Amino acid sequence: MKTYSDYFSKLAPYKEFDPTVFIGDKIIPQELCSFILALALAYNDYKHYTMDFAMLIKSQPKENPQKDSAWGEYAGIKLHIVRLHVGFVHELFQLIQNNKDILSHDFFNEIVRVLNKKARKSWETLVEAALATEVTPKKSNPLFMIRNKVAFHYDAKELLAGYQKGFLKDGKISQNACISEGNELTSSRFYFADLAIQGYLEKELSGDADRFFGGLGQIMSEINMALHNICVRFIQRRGYAWKYPHKE
Fold first, then answer.
1. CA 107, chain centre distance (Å)
2. Is 57 exposed, middle or buried (0-12, 13-18, 19+ CB in 10 A)?
């Protein structure tokens, strides 16, 4: 699949249900309803990440990897999507941290209890990483690395460290910086900035970024299915059913 329209055709027919399912009452607090609603948005956001990444991989330049504008643009976009992935995980952690009291609610625990074993384990791993207080990350789990070490925002100090790693070795220039100085957005790119963030990631991940993000992708795919099941179970457990829209 190389275009969004290819994905549109894969969607199941849409159905409708009563929107008040996400409005709280005397039994189900509004905070819990809002938390599930946020998880639903997180599910959609991660889906977009996986779609974008899959389309990018299929757009890889046909030539062997080399130092040119095509490969530079490809590598830069790939790094950007990876950083969006890290940012997504950070936001998901923040959501859980801000709603940790909800996690102990009986209704929510019942939803988690009826998840299949794999989905429940994935959710529990996510919560454990989000609420971790230890300083030293668990290197066997990418979630803990992100929770404690990997940044995704514009940190000037960290970018400089990555820049120096990419261009300076033992105080000497190891390679030249590159730029595409076009007159439009589509014809321009600062490749040296891409190398700065790449250098930072390699430094933080002990030079094994590909394995790290490969493992993270697998874990997050499983977690996203857990989010899907939690949202569906919530709607069902509240007694709301969906149906195909009436066609006049």
1. 27
2. exposed
Q: Is residue 248 part of a domain?
A: no
Instruction: List per-residue pLDDT tens for the chain, 248 residues long.
Output: 678 888 888 888 888 999 999 999 999 999 999 999 999 999 999 998 888 888 888 889 988 888 899 999 999 998 888 888 888 888 999 999 999 999 999 999 999 999 999 999 989 989 998 998 764 555 567 887 777 667 667 888 889 989 999 999 888 999 999 999 999 999 999 999 999 988 888 887 776 677 777 787 888 888 899 999 999 999 999 988 888 786 65
The CA-based angle 227-231-237, given to 5 degrees, is 135
Task: Count Cβ atoms within 10 A of the Cβ of residue 230 and give its class: 0-12 exposed, 13-18 middle, 19 or more buried.
Answer: buried
Q: What is the DSSP letter of 60?
A: -
Domain that holds residue 137: 27-150+205-237
Of the candidates 91, 104, 211, the one whose C-alpha atom is nearest the C-alpha of residue 152 is: 91
| Number of domain units in the chain | 1
